[in-house]
Amino acid sequence: MSLCDWIVALFCLSAGVGIIAFWAQRLAARQVDLDQPLMRFHLAAEFVTGAVLTAAAVATFVDARAPGTVATVGLGLGLLVYASLQSPPFYPDDKRIRVTLWLTLVATVAVFVFRVATL
Description:
By secondary structure, this protein is mainly α. Helices cover about 80% and strands about 0% of the residues.
């Protein structure tokens, strides 16, 4: 694996595990309003994004150039871009989370460039 492959794999792994851990912590602390249908869909999308990113990381560690790996990484990064762009309205009063989401977007675009540059 090249350095860029390692960066892509470690980013996908940390983002995927981080998303799942973030929401697990918020659920455990009862900070998620599960009575709202929109929040239930949002939560499901977040867990799917975390799972796809984790799968992308594992696939990259196994064979970074396999067509399935490239597709899974692209899907995971695309889901993360979407989550980064559509999540800020859920946190109108939490500047820290909003800044983190924008930094995640920038980092995701950079990792996508690494992925494309090494194909």
